[in-house]
């Protein structure tokens, strides 16, 4: 009987293709929205996790502002706290270097300016003043050609290009070594090119492929002011000592800052937790919007099934006259409603797959589709079919045979 009802559902849907598709549209939109965001979020989570693994679990970052705080046992993430003047100074660098458990450290400062080579500019480039230990601390940042600068070059007008910055200024995969880049009317010699990391947040910020790295001393000479430290990266001696080291770092920095914790000390675990919190909030917001679409879709299913019951009143009367029970009629129309929503859910997942691939290509993230995505879409679709298809099915089952046969 089930297969017979399913066959009848297919015949009914096929007989009104456009009406059936428009009926399913709300389900398609709702399911595709949630599935798209979930897959991109899972892809971003996987990318960040892989990046953290590459950097190493024994890394700690210090950022200006209290962007991560705990209240009532819950951790909150507020990136806006780091906006504005930096609370980190060169004195903090000296203090951190003396903390027990710190193996080595690096820092970088963002400076303003637009790099130029001949008549070509790269307005989207990041100008970063840093230290020679940058590549030693961030082990996934590697030199592709040439070299990174050393302590002896601290005041020299030299720089190292990120791969994307090299392509923008000199052309795709061009040889930029020993070429000149002008920053604020000052010539800097290119001594190295970084390998592409294909990551979006290598150091708690935007992609470093777009960066130009300058020695800190040369950057101070260029700007004529003390540098505003944007990030401090610290390699801890032993991964097992991260928590005690973080505690010592906070105590030492608070003492330097007059007892105020106007900074954040982040472990790799904190970074992953922050990303998960942001993705969770984003997914919840999208899920709320999708719930409205699903509600509209469910109402559409109910409406079209009520219309279908009215249109097929004589069919119901004939089936009952031939011995069909109320339960059989109810099951027939309920299966038809479930089939409509299930098709909508499957089309929604297919649409999500395509949209996620396109979006992932644009933002350079590989979407991750898991079996749970398909199972959740299927479950939600079936649930909507049952909830919104039950009333029309009951109405059909309660029709009296004689009145149904008389219906014109």
Task: Explain what the structure shows.
This protein is α+β, with helices and mostly antiparallel strands. The protein has twelve helices and 14 strands. The strands form three sheets. Strands 1, 4, 7, 8, 9, 10, 11, 12, 13 and 14 form a ten-stranded mixed β-sheet that branches. Helix 2 (17-55) runs antiparallel to helix 11. The chain is elongated.
Main sheet makeup: 10 strands, mixed
Annotation field: number of helices: 12
| Distance, first to last CA | 28 Å
Coarse morphology: elongated
Element string (H = helix, E = strand): HHEEEHEEEEHEEHEEEHEHEHHHHH
Percent of residues in helices comes to 40-55%
Q: Structural class from helices and strands?
A: alpha+beta
Strand content: 15-25%
Low-confidence stretches: 200-205
Question: Which value, in Å, is the CA radius of gyration?
Answer: 31 Å
Mean pLDDT: 83
Number of strands: 14
């Amino acid at each position: 009987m089930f297969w017979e009802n399913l066959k009848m559902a297919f015949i009914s849907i096929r007989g009104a293709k456009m009406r059936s598709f428009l009926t399913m549209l709300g389900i398609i939109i709702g399911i595709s929205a949630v599935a798209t965001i979930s897959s991109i979020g899972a892809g971003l989570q996987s990318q960040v996790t892989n990046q953290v693994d590459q950097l190493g679990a024994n890394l700690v970052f210090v950022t200006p502002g209290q962007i991560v705080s705990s209240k009532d046992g819950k951790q909150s993430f507020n990136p806006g706290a780091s906006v504005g003047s930096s609370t980190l100074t060169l004195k903090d660098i000296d203090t951190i270097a003396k903390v027990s458990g710190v193996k080595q450290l690096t820092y970088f400062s963002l400076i303003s300016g637009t790099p130029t080579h001949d008549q070509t500019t790269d307005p989207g480039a990041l100008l970063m003043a840093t230290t020679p230990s940058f590549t030693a601390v961030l082990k996934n940042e590697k030199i592709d050609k040439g070299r990174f600068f050393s302590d002896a070059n601290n005041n020299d007008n030299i720089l190292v290009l990120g791969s994307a910055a090299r392509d923008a200024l000199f052309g795709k995969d061009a040889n930029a070594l020993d070429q000149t880049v002008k920053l604020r009317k000052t010539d800097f010699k290119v001594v190295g090119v970084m390998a592409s990391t294909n990551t979006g947040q290598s150091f708690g910020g935007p992609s470093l492929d777009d960066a130009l790295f300058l020695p800190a001393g040369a950057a101070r000479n260029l700007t004529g002011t003390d540098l505003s430290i944007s990030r401090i990266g610290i390699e801890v001696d032993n991964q097992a000592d991260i928590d005690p080291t973080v505690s010592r770092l906070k105590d030492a920095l608070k003492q330097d800052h007059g007892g105020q914790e106007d900074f954040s000390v982040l472990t790799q675990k904190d970074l992953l937790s922050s990303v998960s919190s942001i993705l969770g909030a984003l997914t919840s917001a999208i899920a709320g919007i999708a719930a409205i679409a699903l509600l509209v879709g469910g109402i559409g299913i109910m409406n079209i099934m009520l219309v279908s019951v009215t249109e097929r009143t004589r069919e119901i009367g004939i089936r009952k006259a031939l011995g069909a029970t109320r339960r059989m009629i109810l099951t027939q129309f309920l299966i038809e409603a479930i089939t409509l929503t299930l098709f909508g859910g499957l089309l929604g997942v297919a649409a999500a797959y395509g949209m996620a691939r396109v979006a992932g290509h644009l933002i350079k993230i590989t979407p991750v589709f898991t079996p749970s995505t398909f199972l959740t879409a299927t479950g939600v679709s079936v649930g909507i079919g049952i909830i919104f298809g039950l009333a029309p099915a009951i109405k059909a089952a309660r029709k009296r045979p004689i009145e149904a046969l008389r219906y014109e």
